[in-house]
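Students often ask why inverse folding is considered easier than folding. One informal answer: many sequences map to the same fold, so there is more than one right answer. In these notes we will look at a single instance of the problem. The structure comes first.
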């Protein structure tokens, strides 16, 4: 797909970072068939701080590497019943956090769920894709690549 002036092009899979969560590199599947975005969280627990509803959760950002764990805390913006691609309904916490893909950064809503059996730790749904972004389903990684080596300094379990 040739570049379109004024448009930002994503492939069907992209490297993303979630800087406020301390997640510098995650492979995400860009899924325009999914309404909401989802992030892998192997545990999720509600907490309160000064009357604010928060959620604390653990992420294994590298598939098949449970020894690398990032524990995150974020403000809860909602709880929603989400129907997964296999038809299962799940009540999920929703957080808002900035996402960075290439040179661009913008806020998105993300649901938290265990994606341990999935190939991608994150699913980028259509609500997170702005009007000036095009998705080229025939290509991968249209934006700069990141590397899992960014987690080398993270304490191992």
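Output (designed amino acids):
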């Amino acid at each position: 797909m040739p570049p379109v002036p004024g448009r930002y092009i994503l492939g069907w899979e992209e490297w993303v970072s979630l800087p406020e969560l301390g997640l510098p590199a995650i492979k995400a599947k860009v899924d325009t068939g999914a309404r909401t975005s989802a992030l892998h969280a192997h545990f999720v627990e509600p907490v309160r701080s000064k009357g604010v509803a928060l959620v604390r959760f653990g992420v294994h950002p590298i598939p098949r590497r449970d020894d690398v764990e990032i524990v995150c805390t974020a403000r809860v913006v909602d709880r929603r019943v989400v129907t997964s691609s296999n038809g299962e309904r799940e009540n999920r916490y929703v957080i808002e956090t900035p996402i960075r893909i290439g040179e661009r950064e913008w806020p998105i809503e993300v649901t938290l769920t265990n994606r341990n059996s999935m190939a991608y730790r994150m699913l980028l749904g259509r609500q997170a894709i702005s009007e000036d972004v095009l998705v080229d389903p025939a290509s991968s990684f249209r934006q700069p690549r990141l590397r899992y080596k960014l987690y080398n300094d993270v304490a191992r379990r």
